[in-house]
Amino acid sequence: MTYTQSYNSPLGRIVLASREDALIGLWFESQKYFGRTLCEEVVKKETSILRDAHRWLDLYFSGHRPDFVPPLQLLGTPFQQQVWQQLLSIPYGATTTYAQLALTCHTSVRAIGGAVGRNPISLIVPCHRVIASDGSLTGYAGGTDRKKALLEMEQCLIG
User: For 103-125, how does the pLDDT look when each residue is reduced to its tens digit (9 = 90+)?
Assistant: First the structure.
């Protein structure tokens, strides 16, 4: 069973999805690949996992660095999961490039872009912290305006 709940953020409505033991989705409403991991019966219900995710979002959007990560279950291919684990290592207030991730994962920039773009747990798995080598804000499933706002909120240096 998958449980969902919405969250009203300063950048638009967010939909959260969990199973009993882990968060499986966090998307801005209508973003690219929205709800991709929702493939079973969905029930709107508050769970402890969704409460943790709400608390994480409350801290994040109030300008604080959350000091915890709710339990996550990243649903994707082994390669996507490898890339998403790399995203989790990007510190708050920092960025990396698609090229740097490609070197770390021993693959192409294009493959990295595909995996980053399909990240099912936005914000907590910080795909918004991945930028182009020239500093431009290419690609973000939630939209580049949101990506820019998130990086500004985290006070990341934008090229």
Answer: 999 999 999 999 999 999 999 99
For residue 12, give both structure tokens: 């638009």
> How confident is the model over 31-52, as pLDDT tens digits?
666 666 666 677 788 899 999 9
Report how far apart, in Å, the C-alpha atoms of 131 and of each of 64, 99, 117, 159 are: 22, 9, 12, 9
DSSP annotation of 72: B
Would you please indicate which residues are annotated as catalytic (active-site) residues? Answer: 127
24: enclosing H helix or E strand? strand 23-28
Going by C-alpha positions, the residue among 27, 32, 24, 26 that lies closest to residue 1 is: 24
Q: Which neighbouring-strand residues pair with 130? A: 96
Handedness of CA 101, 106, 108, 112 (dihedral sign): negative
User: Residue 119 corresponds to which amino acid?
Assistant: N
Q: Which CATH number fits domain 78-153: 3.30.565.10, 1.10.760.10, 1.10.10.10, 3.30.9.10?
A: 1.10.10.10
CA distance 105 to 93: 22
